[in-house]
Amino acid sequence: MAPPPPHLDPSELGNKDYWQTTYTHDLLTQDQNPTHTGTTWFTDSNASPLTLRYLLALSPPLLKPTTTFLDLGTGNGEMLFLLRSSASAGGGGFMGRMLGVDYSPASVELAARVARQKGYDGTDGAVRFREWDILREPTAENGWEGEEGGFDVVLDKGTFDAISLNEETDAAGRRVCEGYRARVVRLVKVGGRFLVTSCNWTESELREWFEGQDRDGMRGGFEFEGRVEYPKFKFGGQEGQSVYGVCFRRV
Length: 251
Prior knowledge:
The chain contains eight helices and ten strands. The chain has helices spanning 16-32, 47-56, 78-84, 105-118, 146-149, 159-164, 180-185, 203-210, and strands spanning 69-72, 98-102, 128-131, 151-157, 188-198, 212-213, 221-228, 233-235, 238-240, 244-250. The strands form two sheets. It has an eight-stranded mixed β-sheet with strand order 3-2-1-4-5-10-7-6, with helices on both faces. Helix 4 links the parallel strand 2 and strand 3. The longest helix has 17 residues, at 16-32.
C-alpha cells in the first residue's frame, strides 16, 4: 500500500479544546442574540450550496424520502438543515434519517438549539445530534456500520482537515489522521457515498488518502466518483482553487 501524502504541521485547530472553546463562545453569544447560529465552514466558497447542488445532480438521483445522511464534525448542523430544507432546489428537501455528530459537547448543544429554532426537533423531519468521537469511540454498537446499518451519504466538511492538524498518534505510532479512512468506510453503506470538503488537501491528495480497496485490514473501500466544482483562480501562470470537494463511492 502506498504511503499517505506528507503530514501537515500540527495546529491548535486540530485540538478538541480549541473547538470546545469556539462553540462555547457561540452558545454564550446565542444567549444574548438568539439569531446567532455559529460559524459555518467554507462560507466564502459557497461550499454548502455547491455540495447540495452536486448531491441533487447525482444519477440515479438520491431518493429524497429515504436517503440517510451522517454529518461528521457537524459543528452548528448547517449542512443537514440545508439538506432538510432544500425545497427551493425542487421537489422538497431530503426527509430520511439525519444525524450530526461532533466530539465537542458545545457543538452538539448549539446544533440542537438551532434545530429547535428551525422546527427540526419533532418526530417528523427531526435532525438528530450526538456527541461522538469518530477516532476513539466504537461504532458497531450504534448500528451505524455495514451494508444495512450504514448511511447512504456521509459528509465531512472540514473535519478531516482538523484531524490532519492533530499531532496525536495511535497505538501503532501513526498520526491519528491515518486511521480516519478505516473508520469512515464502516459508516457508509455499500454503494453509498462519502463526500469530503477540504481547504488543506488537493483533489489528488484526497484521492491518495481515501481511494482504494482492501486497506487497513478490512474488506471494501472507496472509489472516486466525482468532484464538487469550485471557482478556480490563476496566479503566476498556474491554475488552482482554495477548496476541494471530492465524492467517493463505497465498494
